[in-house]
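Can't paste images in this forum, so I'm doing it all in text. The chain is below; anyone willing to post the predicted structure tokens underneath?
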Amino acid sequence: MLPLPNATAGHRLGVNGLAVDRDRSILYSAGRDGVIYSWNAPDEILPPAKAQPQSPLHSYRQHVQAHTHWINDIVLANNNEALISGSSDNSVKIWRPHATDPTPPRIMGSHSDYVKCLASPGPQAQWVASGGLDKKIRVWDLHRAEQKLEIQNVTENTAVADKGSIYALCANENLLVSGGPESVVKVWDPRSGKRVTKFIGHTDNIRSVIISQDSETIMTGSSDQSIKIWSMTAGRCLHTLTMHNDSVWCLDSDHPRLSIVYSGDRSGLVAKTDLRGAADVDDGLSISLLQEHDGICKIASTPTSLWTATTGSSINRWADADTAGGVQLPDSMRNYRIGGTHGRSRTLSASQNAAPNGITSPRIPMASVLRISNTANFPPIPSRVTTDRSMSIISTSTRKASTAFVEPEVVPATALQSQPLDTIQGQNGLIKHILLNDRRRVLTIDTAGEVMMWDLIRVSSGVMRYASIC
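Text version of the structure:
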């Protein structure tokens, strides 16, 4: 553990890992600087008038330099007493921040290549799994702090060297699910290491996996810009969600049946998808919850808010949105009917905005609604129009028009949240260095674009600063 004043606390490069200890109201973050931080982060509910608090809602607790390279993922286990981290230094470490005699993180084991992801069956779990670029999944016993199982991800396609790499893992007590560049979802038995089944359907790298509590449903996010819902009973993909227009990097849900899901993509969009009460997935509601400036590496939700980690060094906390009230429709669409591909339909009318307890839930502005899938008919697609504005052509018409079509302008959905509730400010970190010919001086550039020269012999006497470059 290192002493550090709160004023200078914060990661110096992108943040790849987040974990929330809800019992203690602690947020853990891990970044590309190899450091793990812990923050006091009480889950307070702020009224709309105080969406921007005058003082930070978080406070610094402690930090530790856990790894010598990027930390790619962290998970909590062992009744939230143990924090496990996986890194590009190939190691898997365990840290016990609440021990009566705190010690630095210690190595449980390692992979022969970068450790990209971790999975824990839950905060009370006594084992975790790690996946790496060495095409292996390793299961670790937390009591003995040693490996108890190794799974070799043998791929049928050997044309590309990294096809068997593990980029996504999720686990419960019954299943261990993995995904990677081979675009195949593989389901394993965490006790024997044998493969249970596999699902094929994605066309690009699988970046995130989540499992329902009953082990029936699996959801995967991919660089092919889609989220797929798989059924273990049916043995196939049931639905494909296409609300994202960029690579889906992360998924998060604490709903036992995955009926509420948060998804983040490379463009910085975080979508909230609510499938509760929907007879068909196309009848569900997906909204643009927030928009970050950088790609979303990790989402950690709490009962009232969610934390986002990006390729930038800061961490933001955002207010959640109540989607139970439905959509606020204009008068011209007050009785608009939403129908799925299987003939089911419902009406988004004012009467649906009353919760069972009689309390009216706020409605989502239509401008923030995303099209949940390619087969959904809400929001309605604008009709195509010709260059002659006096005539409109229905997009479903089979007749060929004599004039050229003008595609309707696609207006991006407006993010419901424009400002975070709280921000853990990051610091500037070094991203490149060059050792000069005298083997004594080093030129560096940081994330702010500032160039500095360091004297390795007299580094303690000061640093010569040069002008920033573009």
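The mean pLDDT is 84. Residues 69 and 443 are 20 Å apart (CA to CA).
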